[in-house]
Specification:
By secondary structure, the chain is an alpha+beta fold. The protein has 2 helices and 5 strands.
């Protein structure tokens, strides 16, 4: 059996999403998906047109969230994603920042 499938390692991912990701419900959809995966963190629009997000939780859940970000909501066109990882910081809840 694969040990990674049951890993309880907690991580934090800082993600920058580029493409047509503003004005298409990307933040709302991201928050909804993150909550269904029981992740902590936040998502916000950046002035340069990208979306920035921080996801924190079990490693497999964070990875599943990042995979979802490559598609996003139906109206989004994702061109690129930059991801960096850090240690979990104990965030609570998931919010859309303005």
């Amino acid at each position: 059996m694969n040990q990674d499938a049951f890993s309880t390692d907690f991580i934090q991912a800082h993600v920058l999403i580029t493409g047509r990701v503003q004005g298409v419900g990307y933040r709302f959809s991201t928050a909804t998906k993150a909550k269904t995966l029981f992740l902590q963190g936040w998502v916000r629009n950046l002035p340069d047109g990208r979306v920035e997000a921080v996801f924190e939780g079990e490693k497999w859940r964070v990875e599943q969230m990042i995979n979802w970000c490559y598609t996003g909501p139906a109206a989004a066109i994702v061109r690129d994603i930059e991801t960096s990882y850090e240690s979990s910081q104990g965030l609570t809840g998931f919010e859309i920042r303005y």
